[in-house]
Design goal:
Elements (H helix, E strand, L loop, with lengths): L16 E3 L21 E2 L37 E3 L1 E4 L1 E4 L2 E8 L4 E9 L5 E7 L2 E4 L4 E2 L13 E2 L6 E4 L6 E4 L1 E6 L9 H6 L13 E8 L12 E6 L3 E3 L4 E3 L1 E2 L2 E2 L4 H10 L22 H8 L2 E2 L2 E2 L5 E4 L4 H10 L4 E5 L2 E5 L9 E3 L3 E8 L10 E8 L5 E4 L3 E2 L1 H6 L6 E6 L5 H15 L4 E7 H4 L7 E6 L4 E15 L7 E9 L7 H4 L2 H7 L16 E6 L6 E6 L6 E8 L6 E7 L4 E4 L5 E10 L9 E7 L1
Parallel strand pairs: 26-33, 28-31
Antiparallel strand pairs: 1-3, 2-24, 4-23, 5-16, 6-7, 7-15, 8-9, 8-16, 10-11, 12-13, 14-15, 17-18, 19-20, 21-22, 24-25, 27-32, 28-29, 28-30, 32-35, 33-34, 34-35, 36-37, 37-40, 38-39, 38-41, 41-42
Helix pairs in contact: 2-3
Length: 624
C-alpha cells in the first residue's frame, strides 16, 4: 500500500468556548469547530502525510502550552471559558455557570460545569483536600428528585454534617446536597433547583454539559474559611468501540472509555469539540496495523497485569488540535498518519515486517546517519503525570537512568523531560518513559530511493526488514517514518519511492522488558544496532611529490568511486594530523598548498555516503 509525504504540521487551529451569562447563569450553545480539510500527522516527534492526499490550504499550526494543566483541579469563575473534555478516569475542576443564595443567605446554590459532553459517572467529590466517595461518603440521603436523580449528601460521621437551628427548631443533616447530571443531550433541568431557585427554570437544562448542582447550607463551624474548592473525579465520555461496534464506557468487560485509540478516534470525529472528520476517512481495520480497531485491541493487551495503554486526562478546547493530539498520542507511544485518504493510528507495538528491502530494490543513493545529533541523544529520562494514588496531583516519576548509556555518552548525564498529561497510572508512566529512552538509543537512520515494485508495498508507520550486505544489514528492522513518490531517471517507469527509515529495537514494547525496566535497560546493547560492518574499498599506490615550494601533490589509484577521498597530513615530528581536506570520489589526485617547509606524513582513505571509512594508505614527502 502506498502512503507518504513530507512532514507537515498544518491543521485547523480552532477553539471552542462556553459563554456564561452573568445574571441568569446558563451556558449559551458552544461554537462549533470547522471541519479539518487537509492532511494531518501527529505523534510525539514524528509526522508523516500522504502522497496522494489532496493539497490542503490550512493555516499554520501553533503549538503552545495547554492552559488546562495549570488549573486542572480548580473550579473557576469566568465570563467565558474554554470547555473541558474528559477522557478516562480523572479528577477535574470546572466552571461556575451560576451561583445564588436563598433563605437569607443560609443556602448557597452552585452549578459547576465539568465537561462539554456526556460522562459515565461521578466517582468522588473533592472539597479542598477531602475526597468524598460516591456510595460510601456520599449517599442518597435526601432521596431521589422528581426526575429520579439521587440527591447525595454525607452521613453523621462526616465533618460536613452539622446541626442547624435558624429558627429555633434544630435539625441535624448533611450541609451538602449534590446532584450529578451526566450531560445527556436530552437531560432536563434540575428539579430541585427549579423548585428552590426563582431564576432557575425548566428551560435551564444545560443539555450536553456534565455538571454538578450543589447546595451548601451555611454553618460557621463547617465553612469558617468560606466555600471549599470544588472538583470531581469522573469516569469520562462513553466511547464508540470499533471492535464491539457499540458505544459505552465499559463494554464486554473492558474499559473502552480509557482506551487511547478510541479517545483519539473520538477527538477526530466529534462534531462538537473535535475535528469533524467523517468516519469514511478513518481506517477502522481490526486486523491490520494502522487500523483503529487493531490499535484498540493492542491497547488492551495485558502488560504488568493491566492494559498495555490507558488514557486518563482532561484538555481544554482552547488548545490547538496538534497539541491535544500530541498529548493523546503520548499516552500510547503512538503516531497518527493520514495517507490514502484515511487517518491511520499506530500505537507502540511491534508488528513483524512483511516486506524486505535488498540492494536489488535500490535505484538511487543512500544517505545514512549512524549517530543522532547531540540534541536528540539522552541517557536518562524524567516524566510528569497525574498520579491517581495522590489525588491526581502532578507527580514526577523516579528518573530512569542507565550507567551503560551514560558511559557510551562519554560519562555525561543527559536527561530528557516528557509530559504525560493523559496518564494517571504510575506503572504506565514508567513504562512509557522507558519506551522513549530505549527508542532514543536506536540511532541509525537513512533515506533510500527504491523501486515502485517494493515501495508501493510499504506505507509510513510500517516496520520494514532491510538486507544490505555492504552495511552489515541482514533482515535488520527499520521503521518507515516518511514515504514520498518522486520522478526518477534511475527507475524503469520514471517513478521511484523515497523512504526515510529509522532502526528499531523489536523488544522495546515487550512485557519482559517493561516488567523489569532497570534490568532491561542495562542489558540493552545499542552498540550492536549502531555499528556498520561495511567494507569500503581503500585507495592504493599512493605517490607523494612536492612540485613547488609549499605544495604537496598526492596521486593514488582506486577500483571504485567512494563518496569522498580524505587527505590528512602532519609534520613527521607532530602527533596530530590535519583532517579537514577531502575531494570527490571520482578524483585520483589532489594538491595541498601553503604548506610550511619540513618533512610530512600524508595519508589517504575512502569514505562512503554512510561515513564509513576504508583502510588508510600513507607515505612521506619533503617540502621546501
Amino acid at each position: 500500500m502506498c502512503g507518504g509525504g513530507n512532514i507537515i504540521d498544518n491543521i485547523l487551529d480552532a477553539t471552542v468556548e462556553i459563554a456564561v451569562a452573568a445574571t441568569i447563569g446558563y451556558f449559551f450553545p458552544p461554537a462549533g469547530l470547522s471541519a479539518a480539510t487537509g492532511a494531518l500527522i501527529a505523534g510525539g516527534t514524528t509526522a508523516v502525510a500522504a502522497a496522494f492526499s489532496p493539497s490542503a490550504d490550512l493555516p499554520n499550526l501553533t503549538v503552545g502550552a495547554d492552559v488546562v494543566n495549570s488549573g486542572r483541579n480548580v473550579t473557576i469563575r469566568q465570563t467565558t471559558a474554554p470547555q473541558r473534555v474528559v477522557y478516562g478516569s480523572i479528577r477535574t475542576g470546572g466552571v461556575f455557570a451560576h451561583t445564588e443564595t436563598t433563605g437569607n443567605n443560609e443556602f448557597l446554590h452552585t452549578f459547576v460545569v465539568l465537561a462539554c459532553h456526556k460522562t459515565e459517572s461521578l466517582v468522588k467529590l473533592h472539597l479542598d483536600d477531602d475526597a468524598l466517595v460516591v456510595g460510601s461518603d456520599l449517599t442518597n440521603v435526601f432521596g431521589n428528585d422528581s426526575n429520579s436523580l439521587p440527591r447525595l449528601g454525607v452521613g453523621s460521621g462526616s465533618s460536613y454534617y452539622g446541626t442547624f437551628d435558624p429558627d429555633g427548631s434544630a435539625t441535624t443533616e448533611s450541609s451538602i446536597r449534590v446532584v450529578y447530571h451526566d450531560g445527556d443531550d436530552n437531560q432536563v433541568a434540575d428539579a430541585t433547583a427549579v423548585s428552590d431557585i426563582s431564576q432557575w427554570t425548566t428551560n435551564h437544562r444545560l443539555r450536553g454539559l456534565t455538571y454538578i448542582y450543589g447546595r451548601f447550607r451555611f454553618l460557621n463551624d463547617i465553612y469558617k474559611n468560606g466555600l471549599p474548592s470544588i472538583s470531581a473525579e469522573l469516569k469520562g465520555k462513553p466511547l464508540f468501540s470499533v471492535v464491539e461496534n457499540g458505544t459505552g464506557y465499559t463494554q464486554n468487560g473492558k474499559d473502552k472509555g480509557r482506551n487511547p485509540a478510541l479517545c483519539i478516534r473520538d477527538f477526530l470525529t466529534d462534531t462538537k469539540y473535535g475535528l469533524k472528520v467523517p468516519t469514511s476517512e478513518i481506517n477502522d481495520s481490526t486486523t491490520v496495523a494502522g487500523g483503529f480497531g487493531y490499535a484498540e485491541t493492542r491497547c488492551e493487551d495485558t502488560i504488568n497485569s493491566k492494559p498495555r495503554y490507558l488514557c486518563d486526562g482532561v484538555f481544554e478546547t482552547s488548545g490547538t488540535p496538534k497539541s491535544i493530539l500530541d498529548r493523546l498520542l503520548a499516552s500510547c507511544s503512538g503516531k497518527l498518519i493520514y495517507q490514502n485518504g484515511k487517518f491511520n493510528l499506530y500505537v507502540g507495538f511491534y508488528t513483524a515486517p512483511t516486506v524486505t528491502i535488498t540492494e536489488d530494490d535500490i535505484v538511487g543513493e543512500i544517505v545514512m546517519q549512524t549517530k543522532a545529533g547531540r540534541k536528540d541523544v539522552f541517557n536518562g529520562i524524567k516524566a510528569k503525570y497525574h498520579n491517581r494514588d495522590e489525588k491526581f496531583v502532578d507527580t514526577e516519576i523516579t528518573p530512569i537512568t542507565s550507567t551503560k548509556f551514560k558511559t557510551e555518552d562519554d560519562g555525561e548525564e543527559i536527561f530528557a523531560n516528557i509530559q504525560l498529561t493523559m496518564v494517571s497510572e504510575t506503572n504506565k508512566a514508567n513504562e512509557l518513559a522507558a519506551i522513549e529512552l530505549l527508542k532514543s538509543r536506536q540511532q541509525i537512520s537513512f533515506t533510500v530511493m527504491v523501486s515502485m515494485r517494493q515501495g508501493f508495498k510499504i506505507q509510513a508507520g510500517d516496520f520494514v526488514a532491510v538486507t544490505i550486505e555492504r552495511f552489515g544489514f541482514s533482515s535488520k528492522v527499520f521503521e518507515c517514518l516518511e514515504w514520498t513518490l518522486i520522478s526518477s531517471t534511475n527507475s524503469d517507469m520514471g517513478l521511484a519511492c523515497v523512504l526515510s527509515l529509522k532502526e528499531t529495537d523489536t523488544t522495546v514494547f515487550d512485557n519482559s522488558v517493561l516488567s523489569d525496566i532497570s534490568t532491561a535497560i542495562e542489558a540493552t546493547d545499542p552498540a550492536t544496532n549502531t555499528t556498520l560492518t561495511a567494507t569500503v574499498v581503500a585507495p592504493t599506490n599512493l605517490t607523494l611529490t612536492s612540485p613547488a615550494a609549499g605544495k604537496i601533490k598526492a596521486v593514488w589509484e582506486c577500483t571504485t568511486n567512494p563518496s569522498d577521498f580524505i587527505i590528512e597530513y602532519k609534520l613527521t615530528s607532530a602527533s596530530t594530523y590535519t583532517t579537514d581536506t577531502k575531494c570527490r570520489g571520482s578524483f585520483r589526485q589532489f594538491t595541498l598548498s601553503h604548506i610550511s617547509a619540513g618533512n610530512y606524513d600524508v595519508r589517504v582513505f575512502s569514505r562512503d555516503a554512510s561515513a564509513v571509512d576504508s583502510a588508510k594508505i600513507s607515505g612521506t614527502v619533503s617540502v621546501s
